[in-house]
Here is the input.
Amino acid sequence: MADIIQLLPDHVANQIAAGEVVQRPASVVKELVENAVDAGSTVIQLIIKGAGKTLIQVVDNGKGMSERDMLLSVQRHATSKIRTAEDLFQLHTKGFRGEALASIAAIAHLEISTREEDNEVGIQLKIEGSTINDPKPIACEKGTSIAVKNLFFNIPARRNFLKSDTVELRHIIDEFHRIALAHPDIHFDFFHNNSELFKLPPSNLRQRIVNVFGGKTNEKLVPIKEDTDVVKINGFISKPAFTKKTRGQQFFFVNNRFVKNSYLHHAVSSAFEGLLKPGHHPGYFIFLEVDPSSIDINIHPTKTEVKFDEDQAMYAILRSTVKHSLGQFNVAPVLDFDR
Ligand code: ADP
Ligand code: MG
Here is the structure.
């Protein structure tokens, strides 16, 4: 029998990987904004047109890229964030898989403009399908701008599968909330079809929550805080009187990364037991800080799931911390310790 196995060409492999990383416009927003955060930016602009189906652009004032790095950044498994397998247990960045830009370039038109502080001019790279233009000099601010156009231009099934603009924009806003809440010290601007949806100046966490969800949120927040060997807990929970029938405002962040975790969610809900109106859900903005070597975030390409070594201890500590704050709130309504 003849040998029949072949290594796939890069662009095919990238397109396959893209299927997991990029489900919809919101996935691109997440990857680009996370890269901007990892680049040490203090100001990040998100510019969207047509709910991300026409344009997704992220402009940052971070450290920028050299020409070599810009060319490498769109290769698969190319990253500046880890070097060795051991680094996976000491993650301090949002990214580490080195596949977002390669995936996005495989399924959309990509335009990168970037300038490092020490360089007088910037450089620009355009990738449209298999056409990769030579980088050319461009006048731009320090930092990086990445524009993604015509998402899924070469995968009609995916493009047709996208939901209405209202639904896709909702997903984008959800991703934006998650990253804006995790980084209150960063200034964010978010434009959709030329109108500004969010303008978030640098602030503390409480102020950021209020700027994102509106002035009325302030009186609803109860601070929580705990410091143990296993985990440091910070953030806010909603007062029982202000809980909602929707599950909208429920956020866990582990080492400043938004994660979904039904086990920890249960810990919080059970702490609210007996305090909630029937059918109501607690709101929470909970930041868990743990030793990076005690978690595994590399469970899914989107990195929104996490495995804890000590999940039972986490559950117990979280539950009692929330209970404690709810109790304290009843006797001391003005208690506050801002992050
Ligand atoms: P990862 O974030 O996992 O490293 P990406 O494909 O998202 O992988 O990005 C590849 C590399 O490109 C990053 O490691 C980083 O060095 C560089 N990069 C991407 N976006 C930016 C940005 N906005 N500013 C500076 N460098 C960036
Ligand atoms: Mg990345």
User: Anything to note?
Assistant: Residues 331-339 have pLDDT under 50 and may be disordered. The two ends are 67 Å apart (CA to CA). DSSP finds nine helices and 16 strands in the chain. Residues 311-331 form the longest helix (21 residues).
